[in-house]
Specification:
The protein is an alpha/beta fold. The protein folds into three domains: about 100 residues, no CATH class; about 150 residues, no CATH class; about 150 residues, Nucleotidyltransferase, domain 5. The chain is built from 17 helices and five strands. A five-stranded mixed β-sheet has the order 3-2-1-4-5. A hairpin with a 6-residue loop joins β1 and β2. α12 packs antiparallel against α14. The termini are far apart.
């Protein structure tokens, strides 16, 4: 529409008042014989500032009319603006006028499903743009007249369109597999259009739908980093990002449950052939002295090793959590573990391992040591966040460590009765 033609600022609106102009669509300002702007009509319709800007806008033939819902000066998408636009659309269609977008009930139904999804607004924006294939993917940019290499910036093998980037690229193939969504990926690949893909996502169960939404969002974020010249963070970073956000959703749901009810989260045994290492730190802010604790348990929930130790000078809580994880990993190396799952109740530990967020912080040396120990000593490894209720044993060991003699051996033998009770409670079947 003419009212949102000139992109001179965040509003994308010309300064010329509407008054009684009969023009409604941009195509009416284009000379049908030459295919270029009708300069005389533009200058007769708009004020000088707009009239000087409009002819500089590029034109691309063969494109149908469409309405654009642009963000405001703060970068937010106004729901009120969309409602006004849809109301005007529907009113125009009832009068028999032309409509620049789909006015069928399915359009509003899909938008309602996306808007009601329990995820970040940025994720909803990604879904909406994906629905109409509006992402600036390289194939889309070439279709709009941009001359560029259309190969995927991540795998450098095939043309980067929506199907390749979100579903077929090796990066995302690994992500879907590690998230346990291989079946869902094949379902989405079988859909005939981008809109059908989003419709299929919206029909999934809540947990699967959220995993898909987070995966699509983080995939797009990682792609944009590569486009800006940064290194691809890879499938592990995306998968962990999805799992961290899913855990956060679980915590939000459990927050509304009464304290007297049974725990909504329980410690889970690792898969066969794996050892789970739970780590935690505890310290007194007034003294700066604290302790670390870790417990190694096998697929049966049996204790392989329990350790604790004292930390004489705490820099910050993250430092203690990283020290606890390093001690736990070193204990796993000592007993010859091949496949390890490291759990901490600190989200920052997971972010430090899988992202560059703390690479230039005061704990950068600890982060580097943690990554090195993991990559050089295990066949497979994963670091994940767990709720505090799943990390009670490590927390008690850390409390013991803060009161222990620095000269004592870190391995705890025998294990105190109250800690054995917590271990047994973790392994007990859910009631």
């Amino acid at each position: 529409m003419v009212g949102s033609l000139a992109p001179k600022d965040s509003t994308r609106k010309p300064i010329t008042p509407r008054h009684g102009s009969l023009l409604r669509e941009v195509v009416e300002l284009i000379n049908p014989l030459t295919g270029f702007w009708d300069d005389q009509l533009v200058r007769d319709t708009f004020l000088e500032e707009d009239a000087n800007l409009i002819p500089s806008l590029p034109l691309h033939g063969g494109m149908s009319n469409r309405a654009a819902w642009h963000f405001d000066a703060k970068g937010a998408f106004s729901v009120n603006a969309y409602k006004v636009f849809r109301h005007d659309q529907l009113r125009s269609s009832r009068r028999g006028g032309a409509s620049s977008s789909n006015t069928d009930p399915a359009h509003d139904s899909l938008w309602k499903k996306i808007w009601e999804t329990d995820c970040a607004k940025k994720s909803k924006h990604i879904l909406w743009r994906l629905c109409y294939n509006r992402h600036p993917l390289r194939v889309n940019l070439k279709r709009r007249g941009v001359v560029l290499d259309t190969r995927c910036p991540i795998c450098q093998r095939f043309d980067e369109d929506g199907a390749h980037h979100f579903l077929k690229c090796k990066l995302m193939e690994n992500v879907w597999c590690q998230l346990g969504l291989t079946r869902e990926r094949y379902i989405l690949l079988a859909q005939p259009s981008a809109r059908d893909v989003i419709e299929a996502v919206m029909k999934m169960k809540v947990e699967l739908k959220l995993k898909c939404c987070f995966a699509l969002w983080l995939c797009w974020a990682d792609r944009n980093r590569v486009r800006e010249g940064e290194q691809c963070r890879g499938p592990a970073w995306i998968v962990q990002g999805v799992l961290v956000r899913m855990a956060e959703k679980d915590r939000q749901k459990s927050a509304v449950v009464s304290v007297g009810l049974s725990r909504s989260h329980r410690w889970e045994k690792p898969a066969a052939g794996h050892v789970k290492v739970n780590c935690d730190a505890a310290f007194e802010p007034g003294t700066g002295i604290g302790g670390w604790g870790c417990v190694l348990r096998d697929q049966d929930g049996a204790v392989v090793m329990a350790c604790r130790g004292r930390i004489e000078a705490f820099l910050n809580p993250l430092q203690g959590e990283l020290i606890a994880c390093i001690q736990g990993i070193q204990a796993a190396i000592e007993v010859g573990v091949g496949h390890v799952v490291v759990e901490s109740d600190a989200v920052a530990v997971v972010q430090a391992v899988y992202s560059s967020a703390y690479d230039l912080s005061a704990v950068t040396d600890l982060v580097a040591e943690l990554r090195s120990l993991l990559s050089m000593n295990f066949i497979s490894w994963v670091v994940q966040q767990s709720p505090r209720s799943c990390n009670r044993v490590a927390h008690e060991l850390a409390s013991l460590g803060s009161m222990s003699d620095p000269a004592m051996a870190p391995v705890l033998v025998p294990i105190q009765a109250h800690i054995m009770y917590l271990i047994a409670d973790d392994s007990a079947p859910s009631k």
